[in-house]
Design a protein that fits this description.
It is a single chain. The protein has one domain: CoaB-like (Rossmann fold). About 30% of the residues lie in helices and about 30% in strands. Helix 1 packs across helix 5. It has five helices and twelve strands. The strands form three sheets. An eight-stranded mixed β-sheet has the order 5-4-1-6-9-10-11-12, sandwiched between helices. By secondary structure, it is of the alpha/beta class.
């Protein structure tokens, strides 16, 4: 089986040196790549810029912007059996990228942001017989409801709900939600432990 895993952050540039991004470390996605490889499967790891090394044996595709991620996913999706999408994708980008480096002018700078492409939704639109596991990071009161809405909108088979404390952390607590809205599993521990348990669930349930 060939599994695509997206990991890490994306960056959206304001000028040639400044960008919008987030503090995703990529650890969850990289740990999942290791778990899937250990189970004897092929892994295509599409990763934003992180400070950790990918596990040996996987195909690594480095990306930076959300559009980079979209192009890479489009190119690999047809040859994969499923995807686990852990990447922390920027939801917005500056409408215009300024050339060079913006200098201070003594006045305020107004920045207009527009939505980036919805990578997971596009994969869901071209799902075919493949399976899709998404990740949802939610901090609001209605986290479960928001995660379920994302699952439906993006045509996922399951979505993994976690919170802001997961960003950059060594450990994680996740809730696996199926398309009927039920929570079918909860895992907690180091990201390597959570990744191993999550892959066991995916392998037993979706593959």
């Amino acid at each position: 089986m060939r599994v695509m895993i997206t990991a890490g952050p994306t960056r959206e540039y304001l000028d040639d040196v400044r960008y919008l991004s987030n503090a995703s470390s990529g650890r969850m996605g990289y740990a999942l790549a290791e778990a899937v490889l250990s189970a004897g499967h092929e892994v295509v790891l599409i990763t934003g810029p992180v400070m950790i090394s990918p596990p040996a044996g996987c195909t690594v595709i480095a990306v930076e912007t959300t559009d980079d991620l979209l192009r890479a996913c489009r190119a690999e999706w047809e040859a994969c059996d499923g995807v686990i999408a852990t990447a922390a994708v920027c939801d917005y980008r500056p409408r215009a990228r300024f050339p060079g480096k913006l200098a201070k002018t003594g006045v305020s700078l107004e920045l207009e942001l527009v939505e980036t492409a919805d990578v997971l939704a596009e994969l869901g639109q071209h799902k075919g017989n493949r399976w899709i596991v998404g990740f949802a990071l939610e901090s609001e009161e209605f986290a479960h409801v928001n995660a379920l809405r994302k699952l439906k909108e993006k045509n996922c088979d399951a979505i993994v709900l976690n919170g802001p404390t997961a960003i950059g952390a060594e450990s994680n607590t996740v809730e696996v939600i199926k398309d009927d809205g039920t929570t079918v599993a909860r895992f907690t521990g180091s990201k390597r432990v959570v990744a191993g348990e999550l892959w066991k669930w995916v392998d037993a349930t979706l593959v």
